[in-house]
Design brief:
Blueprint: E1 27-32, E2 38-42, E3 49-53, E4 65-68
Antiparallel strand pairs: 1-2, 2-3, 3-4
């Protein structure tokens, strides 16, 4: 889920990325890059990954890119920060 900057209390998300095309299975953290893209750590998948979605993604959106594989050394990705 994506919330507006500074949101607090009982507010609805501005976007929800979910569905089969997202390739998400246990997302644990989300960050918005200076490029506007949405970065999600995905630790519940059979192969842990960082999935990158386009700015404004909502619903069953396929990632622009998936960072995964043994070279990444991802095991249980958690908090993420991007610039």
């Amino acid at each position: 889920m994506v919330f507006s900057p500074g949101a607090s209390g009982s507010v609805a998300p501005t976007a929800i990325i979910q569905g089969a095309h997202t390739k998400l299975a246990g997302p644990s953290s989300i960050a918005i890059g200076s490029d506007g893209n949405i970065y999600v750590t995905n630790g519940g998948a059979s192969q842990p990954s960082v999935n990158i979605y386009p700015q404004g993604a909502n619903g069953d959106t396929a990632p622009l890119a998936v960072l995964a594989g043994t070279a990444t050394q991802l095991v249980s990705p958690g908090p993420i920060a991007v610039s």
